[in-house]
Amino acid sequence: MVKLEEISTKPSFSNQLENKMLYSNHSNDISISYTSTYTLKYVIEGIKHYNYNNENIEVSKNQYLILNNSKITTEAKKGTKGLSFFLSSELLNEILNYHTTSTTSFEFIEATQKQSNNKVRLFLEQITYLYENDRMTLQQQIEDLFIKLSELIVQEQNAIDNKFTRLKIVKHDTKRDLYRSILKAEEYLQDNLARDISLEILSKDIGISKYYLHRLFTEIHGDTPLKYLTGIRLQKAKNKLRYSTASIFETAIACGFDNTSYFSNIFKAHTGVSPSQFRKAF
């Protein structure tokens, strides 16, 4: 049975710590240490800091982090809101065995997930909405929601593990560090998409060679770094064309394209219509 709890003060963690969903809305600054099972931390408002294996990990609004069995110290300021899902190792291993033939112990890569469009993040938003707006439905569906969330995170982790296996990388600490490098590369590209970015500039910022970054990013992400950059530039351009009055030229420059002609060609190649035609459709 999945247990649902809500806290506003410092929790004691003296009760059930598996198969539990905990909503926190801190009325004061907190700092607490405890030994936990597998746990997913999702921040709804504010910023939380987790000290895990002598490492400080920051999780901001709409981001999540999955931690393995270990001692955790949580720090949060007054007004911070979040959801914690304390996961049963028995359930996770059952899901893993259903989807794979692996007999090894399960380990998540401890990295803050910031992507806004992945399945886990979208599902967490759905659970948060139910908690804050339709508690009765959440109570009725909590078992199914908890199992579905567990399945999504196992599938996500298994997909990452398979990609590292193809790269012949098996050590957990190595996978974690390299995966964080990929997340850092994605964040750099998103934050600097209007700038002139090359693979050399990106590799220097991340701290690994151009070749290895290209190979690693392509295997883990599915696109080369520069294709990924083009994709997020085009997505920003679509949003500007729909929701702003900026000219085509202004939109192109703001999204990192050198000139209107190049922008129009790339845009049409990916969408099938010119920027002007796209804007008129809305």
TrEMBL record:
Domain of life: Bacteria
Gene3D superfamilies cross-referenced by the UniProt entry: Homeodomain-like
Gene Ontology MF: a single term: DNA-binding transcription factor activity
Coiled coil spans: none
Protein's UniProt keywords contain Transcription regulation: yes
Domain HTH araC/xylS-type: 183-281
Pfam family, one: HTH_18
SMART domains cross-referenced by the UniProt entry: HTH_ARAC
Keywords: DNA-binding, Transcription, Transcription regulation
Protein name: Helix-turn-helix domain-containing protein
Organism annotation: Aquimarina algicola
